[in-house]
Structure formats: C-alpha cells, structure tokens
Amino acid sequence: MKYDRKLVVCMILIGVGLIVSILNGFGVLNGDAFVGIGSGFIGVGVFYFVKYLRYIKDPEFQEQYDIAMQDERNRYIRMRSWALAGYIMIIVYAIGGLVAYILKQNMLASFLLTSVCFVLLVYSASYFYLNKKY
Q1: Does the model's pTM come out above 0.70?
Q2: CA 73 to each of CA 3, 9, 70, 125: distance values in angstroms, whole numbers, following the listed order
Q3: CA–CA separation, 53 vs 17, rounded Å?
Q4: Angle at Cα 122 formed by Cα 107 and Cα 96, nearest 5°?
Q5: Which helix (H) or strand (E) holds 42?
Q6: Any idea what DSSP says for residue 27?
Q7: 11, CA 20 to 30 Å: which among 44, 74, 103, 127?
Q8: pLDDT value for 131
Q9: Burial tier of 6 (Cβ tally within 10 Å: 0-12, 13-18, 19+)
Q10: Other C-beta atoms within 10 Å of 88: how many?
Q11: How does DSSP classify residue 2?
Q12: Measured between alpha carbons, how far is residue 3 from residues 7, 9, 54, 85 in Å?
C-alpha cells in the first residue's frame, strides 16, 4: 500500500506525541512542559489527519486546495512569511543571547548566539548558491 507523504507526517506527529506523553507518564521525562509538548504534537497530528481526510473525500475541497497551493500569489506570501519569521527569530535569539549573557547564563547565551551565527551562515551559503544558480 502506497502511503501519501501527508499521511506519514500525521502518523509521525501523533506517534511522537504519544511517545513523549508515555515517557512523561512513566517518569522518564519530568516536568509539566512535556505533557503540553506531547498533547501539542497529538493535536497537530489529529488536525492534519482530519484535513487530509477532507482532502481525500471532498473533490471540490481538493481542487480548491491544489489551486491555492499552486497560485503564485500564495507562494509569494508563504515565501515572505518564512523570511519574516526567520528575521524575527534571528532578532529574538540575538537579544535573548545578549540578555542571557548579561544575566550570567553563559550556556544559554552560547546556544542562542551560536544559533544566530549558524542561521546566518546557512543564509549566506544558500544566498551565494542560489545567486549563482539563478
């Protein structure tokens, strides 16, 4: 049986959520945050699964969804949204790293500032690659 990629993503999200919740229940993962993380993964997985079922069963929805995914305007909006999210992430990580450094949280500051450097390195490499390709 051939599985669609969307169905596999749904299964993975629900599976990860169940694993995190079970590990938290047995005490392997301690903390209330893991209950929220597990429940969040399960919720997102179920949401995508319901959307996938609607996509399969409703040909009108399937046609509208496919048109929306191929529309140039929607592609541009998705691309700009990812870019804006990346810019905001870099700024928040940089400010958080500086605040952590001021508060003597050296490990957190190192992680955040290294993350900023890594993202900027990936951005630079992909910019030069795509600039030569296109």
Answers
A1: no
A2: 30, 26, 9, 27
A3: 20
A4: 35
A5: helix 33-57
A6: T
A7: 74
A8: 86
A9: middle
A10: 10
A11: P
A12: 7, 10, 16, 31
Q: Is 60 strand, coil or helix?
A: helix
Structure tokens at 117: 């450097």
d(CA 32, CA 9): 25
**Terminal CA-to-CA distance of the chain, rounded, Å?**
39
Contacts of 22 (CB under 8 A, 6+ apart): none
Assigned token pair, 133 = 């390709």
The amino acid that residue 74 corresponds to is N
CB 10 within 8 A of CB 45: yes
Q: Taking Cα atoms as reference points, which of 9, 79, 14 lies closest to residue 43? A: 14
